[in-house]
Amino acid sequence: AQSLIFPFSSFSHTIARETPTSVVFQGSPLGALSGSVRGNVVADVVRLAISRKHPNAMIEDALPGLCVNGSRRGSNRSEYDWLQDGRRVECKSSQIQWASNTWKVRFSAVKTPFFDDLVLVITTPTTLHLYSHDGTFGASSCGVTSICGAIHINVVGPRGETRWDVAAAAILTKLNAPSNGCEHLFDIRGDDEIVKSVLAQRVALTEQVFVGVPMATLCPSSRGICIESIARE
After folding, report:
1. Which residue has the higher pLDDT, 33 or 167?
2. 3-state SS of the chain?
3. Are the C-beta atoms of 151 and 140 separated by less than 8 Å?
4. Which residues have CB under 8 Å from 217's CB, separation 6+?
5. pLDDT beyond 60 at 213
6. What are the residues facing 97 on neighbouring strands?
7. pTM of the model
8. How far apart are CA 129 and CA 121, in angstroms?
């Protein structure tokens, strides 16, 4: 078999098709990370920030638990993120994203049977907004084929509003409404020293190598679509 090698510059017109989401997150410390790595970084940032705000709280690593086949889970596959004063805490984060003519946040496959408290983190280009979720606001079932009790949580901004900051304010207003039981915990600036510290410790060599490389910040599905477009050319 013969391989073909082309420089990225040959397909700059395809690679440069940026989405509104990727455009607003350009230059953001977390925006250059893949979704899975960003989720792990945000969880570490939140845990560290909570421990500093509540120095008397007992915060411990999650217990690994067991897989469905009875084998012990790895430490990186726990069913929740950490223990706080004996309660299981799950931390889920979502970047604000442009989809279907609106800015929105979506927390996917939240496995409700496996934690006691849920912390939602809305990531914008400038700030991490932390909320304690009430278990019902914005929630919908994952369907009959999903793990029992798993839900999606969606909160959308005004349809047709193109400014992310205006839409984000509307999303936060919904979460702050007295009609639900969600509680605003606190905010963390994207350039906070805690974020910088966790990024320096958590980001793998692979992520560092690909910083600034075309398509590096795309999610796997978007990257696949882009590569298919290049192959067809």
Report:
1. 167
2. CCCCCCCHHHHHHHHCCCCHHHHHCCCCCCCCCCHHHHHHHHHHHHHHHHHHHCCCCCEEECCCCECCCCCECCHHHCCCCEEECCEEEEEEEEECEEECCEEEEEEEEEEHHHCCEEEEEEECCCEEEEEECCCCCCEEECCCCCCCCEEEEEEECCCCCCCHHHHHHHHHHHHHCCCCCCEEEEEEECCCHHHHHHHHHHCCHHHHHHCCCCCCCCCHHHHHHHHHHHHHC
3. yes
4. 22, 25, 31, 32, 33, 34
5. yes
6. 104
7. 0.82
8. 5
Given the structure tokens 């910088």, which residue do they identify?
Answer: 196
Q: Are 115 and 80 a contacting pair, CB within 8 Å?
A: yes
β-pair type (117-123, 87-95): parallel
